[in-house]
Amino acid sequence: MWGLRAATMAVRRSAVSRAGAMRAVHVEATKSSVQAAIKSEKVLVFSKTYCPYCARVKALFEDLDVDHEVVELDERPDGSDIQEILLSLTKQRTVPNVFIKGQHVGGCDAVTELYAQKKLQAMLE
Q1: Per the database record, which ranges form the Glutaredoxin domain (predicted)?
Q2: Cβ neighbour number for residue 100 with a 10 Å cutoff
């Protein structure tokens, strides 16, 4: 389970019927909350629902049967604030913005390249 106080992060989870459960995460738009979410989740994807690159990354994790947490920035009134926090942490403005075991991986190109090189699977073990 999460182990984080409600004051740090509010969580809403909704399982997807496909393999590799995807959960929606609600993160407060504070740097400490974003950092706590990054550290606490095995796989965390900051995404936008209409982004084809985000869909590709989420589908890859589902195909690999990897549970992953998702923050859909376009479904949140504070999504742009969270995106600015991510920019300050990672120097990456674009989505998807992917973290594995607390480490910034990058976007779709980085994730798919790691997969092609068989490095992604090792990172997920």
Answers
A1: 43-105
A2: 21
The domain that holds 68 is classified in CATH as 3.40.30.10
Kindly tell me if the per-residue pLDDT of 9 is higher than 50. Answer: no
Range of the structural domain that residue 76 is part of: 22-124
61-75 per-position pLDDT tens digit: 999 999 999 999 999
Does pLDDT of 51 surpass 80? yes
* Residue 108 forms part of a structural domain: yes
What does the block give as tokens for 39? 């550290």
What is the pLDDT, as a whole number, of residue 3?
31
Q: Is residue 85 within 8 Å of 31, Cβ to Cβ?
A: yes
Q: Is 77 a member of any domain?
A: yes
Domains in the chain: how many in total?
1
In angstroms, the CA 23 to CA 6 distance is 17
pLDDT per position as a tens digit, 95-120? 999 999 999 999 999 999 999 999 99
Is 16 part of a structural domain of the chain? Answer: no
Q: Do the Cβ atoms of 49 and 101 come closer than 8 Å? A: no
